[in-house]
Specification:
transmembrane helix; single chain; 496 residues; CARDB domain-containing protein; 32 strands; elongated; Immunoglobulin-like; Tick-borne Encephalitis virus Glycoprotein, domain 1; 23% helix; transmembrane; alpha+beta; membrane
């Protein structure tokens, strides 16, 4: 029903009316009008009405239902050209002039839309038409959607994410097209354009690979589909965790309790709820002696959380009452505590928390000084007693000292000593090989001079001193043996 040339409402006629008037049922009430006209609707399944609509060259189309499009194709000589399309495919066309009523039809011949052309205007920059009384028929709905998204609830930083999902046609008509599907998350995105042929209620499965974000925390994965007629999206949340990240803080809480027991807490740049641990910490125990500290025990502790336990019984490290240093090392960070272990008898006289005197003031200092002075004296006596002297070859000294370090390391253990022995032996062997192939290098290594005597003496003294520091109980034998061997070699060597 129209009132003043405008659609007012649609309703039902009253069977009984006052003279000269027609009555209508309107929302449970009755209204009476005497200035109206009726326009019969002949379209079957009419479901939509627009009073007026403007289509232009910049906005030339409008949707009819969910899958059909009414489009203004062109205007020329007062005429307007229209098309009706489905998924971009034209199924009907029509042309009309101002004042005419235009109809377009579905594939089955039923009327889809009709309207009256009120005005056609041509302009270089924006031509178009004004339409009025647009009536459209009901259409089958197309309902394309993203079905269940299959991903893991937790990923580690930059781990591959296998994303599974299906596109489902929940509508009552088939769909054929090439929609754009975008699968995205923080820092990564994948776009696919599959050719979809989906019957009513049909679906198709897809899998894509994305990279999990580098930033631990809660994240969202979104899948959006643009099937030409609308935009559809679905999201799912997941979590990114850091596995064994860099350790930034370490704090030990250890005490003597029938051994050494307690907890260690480590921190990282990330919140603890987004961090997993599967690594090991190294716990070392040192006994404090008068020349520093000596490693007596080492143990790997499994770490599966930001707090882990240290549990060392007396039987693992105890070497008698005294001061012990316990250090915990993980991820390049270290923390240590000083203990005065009383043992199982609890009988101990505290000595304070200060470390004992260093090597420079301990009993090893005079022994090392005696070794150095003795080696200098050996060189001086040899130079005084012999008119022609030969300097010990540097390459041979390096080989002999390296082997000595390896032998001691084999007997007493110590990875650092093994490494030093291998390096020194290798350097000596390499220098020897080069000297044999290059006469100039050989002359340099075998040159007889005070500088060569000093270099050889330095290699021997450094090696002996290192052994003394690592095995102090052997200090007397190492010092005396080194002096005897060095003096004998100086006097017995006649060159090569």
């Amino acid at each position: 029903m129209y009132f003043d040339d405008t659609l007012a409402l649609t309703t039902e006629f009253k069977n009984e009316n006052p003279s000269g008037k027609i009555g209508f049922d309107v929302y449970g009430g009755t209204g009476y009008f005497d200035n109206f006209y009726l326009r019969p609707i002949t379209m079957e399944n009419a479901s939509g009405y627009l009073n007026e609509l403007n289509l232009t060259s910049t906005k030339p189309s409008t949707r009819i239902g969910s899958i059909y499009t009414l489009q203004l194709e062109d205007t020329a000589n007062g005429k307007a050209f229209f098309s009706l399309s489905k998924f971009g495919k034209t199924i009907d066309t029509s042309v009309g002039s101002e004042g005419e009523t235009v109809s377009l039809y579905f594939e089955n011949g039923d009327e889809a839309v009709n309207f009256k052309i009120n005005e056609v205007f041509d302009a270089e920059d924006n031509s178009g038409v004004w339409l009025e009384e647009i009536i459209s028929a009901s259409t089958d709905d197309l309902n394309i959607g993203v079905d269940e998204i299959s991903i893991d609830p937790i990923y580690y930083q930059e781990e591959n994410m296998d994303v599974g999902f299906s596109v489902k046609n929940n509508g009552g008509i088939g769909y054929k097209g090439t929609p754009e599907i975008v699968i995205s998350t923080d820092g990564d995105k994948e776009t696919i354009n599959p050719e979809l042929v989906l019957d009513a209620k049909g679906s198709e499965q897809f899998n894509v690979m994305l990279k999990a974000p580098d930033n631990p925390g809660s994240h969202t994965l979104t899948i959006s589909i643009d099937p030409e007629y609308t935009s559809i999206g679905r999201s799912v949340d997941y979590q990114v965790r850091a596995l064994n990240p860099a350790v930034t803080t370490i704090s030990t809480d250890l005490q003597e309790d029938n051994g050494i027991r307690g907890t260690v807490t480590i921190g990282t740049p990330f919140p603890a709820q987004f961090v997993d641990w599967d690594t090991t910490a190294i716990v070392k125990v040192y006994s404090v002696v008068d020349y520093g500290k000596k490693e007596i025990y080492s143990k790997d502790v499994t770490v599966t959380g930001s707090t882990f336990n240290v549990d060392l019984g007396y039987n693992e490290f105890y070497r008698g009452d005294g001061q012990y240093v316990v250090s915990v090392d993980i991820g390049g960070m270290q923390d240590s505590d000083l203990f005065e272990i009383v043992g199982e008898d609890f009988d101990y006289t505290p000595t304070g928390d200060g470390l004992p005197p260093t090597i420079l003031t301990g009993e090893l200092y005079p022994k090392l000084m005696m070794l150095l002075i003795g080696m200098v004296a050996a060189v001086s006596v040899r130079n005084h007693m012999q008119k022609v002297t030969k300097s010990l070859p540097i390459d041979l000294l390096a080989i002999v000292c390296g082997i000595a370090l390896l032998v001691v390391a084999f007997i007493r253990g110590g990875s650092d000593m093994v490494t030093l022995g291998i390096v020194l032996t290798g350097a000596g062997i390499g220098a020897n090989i080069v000297s044999r192939s290059d006469s100039s290098v050989g002359k340099m290594l075998m040159m007889d001079s005070h500088l060569h005597d000093f270099a050889g003496m330095l290699i021997v003294f450094s090696s002996a001193a290192y052994i003394v520091l690592q095995v102090p109980e052997w200090s007397f034998f190492v010092v005396v043996g080194t002096l005897v061997a060095y003096y004998s070699a100086l006097n017995m060597y006649k060159g090569r």
